[in-house]
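The instructor's notes for this session suggest beginning with a concrete chain rather than abstract definitions. Hand out the sequence below and ask the class to guess, before any prediction is shown, which regions might be ordered.
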Amino acid sequence: MRVSGPVGPALWAGRRAVLATMHGKQAAIAPPLSRVAGLALEVARGLDTDALGTFTGEIPRAGGLREAALAKARLGMRAAGSDLGLASEGAYGPHPSIPFLPAGAEVLVLVDDARGLVLWEEIVDSAPVYAATEAASVETLESFLAGIGFPRQAAVVRPNAGAGPVRKGIAARAALARAVEESAAASADGLARVETDMRAHMNPARMSTIGRLAQRFAERLARACPACGAPGYGRLRAGPARPCAWCGGPTLRPGEDVLGCVACGHEAAPAGHPQPGDPGDCPACNP
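After discussion, reveal the predicted structure:
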């Protein structure tokens, strides 16, 4: 039975969430959560979220994206003594289907201990600013720097071979030239590795992606479950694979998302018959 009650911003009236970030993500996350869901954010102070993992690999991240974001949210909640916390996490690398292209994934998690809810939303970034190259001097980097949008997009520099310091947040040519020279001198092959800095405050494209994710998440937070009225009704998982248009077997493409409520377990069955999938995605027809 559906529980009647508030919807939209009223679902979160008077609530304030603690955002666990040390990289300025509140600039992208706070506006849609306030405007659409009526949820106010404050940034947890004095946190070292890098202790849970770094993009540059000095500290490995434990678990998947959702687990890492959940751990980060709870870290902020403990620091602020709050029962409502929020955090995001991202991962970038080669595209799973087209390895020579980059891809990224971002997840946003909210923990509401007062309601006993853990809510999340995810987004795939198919065109991130994510790249790396090797260089002996800054003079050979002109094309790479233009491609990533330096200096608005910051760089990370380290020795290409062997141990050495990892220099982050480089956004000035003089500093970049010095870092490349020093890293190349410390490298066994005489080259520096130059990478895009993937931290949100150093990567405008990633910050924009987080903003799109926050908009989607805000819309979810403002949506009540049709069965119990709890907030956060939305995607639970990908639906069953689309059937091949030729043979009817499962393709590699998922069907419509399964929507539901994490509070009461209500799920909505996809409407109608699943749309046929492309035979090119069928392991049987296109092995």
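Then share the key points. The domain at 8-128+201-230 is CATH 3.90.950 (Maf protein). Helices lie at 26-37, 65-80, 142-148, 173-186, 204-221.
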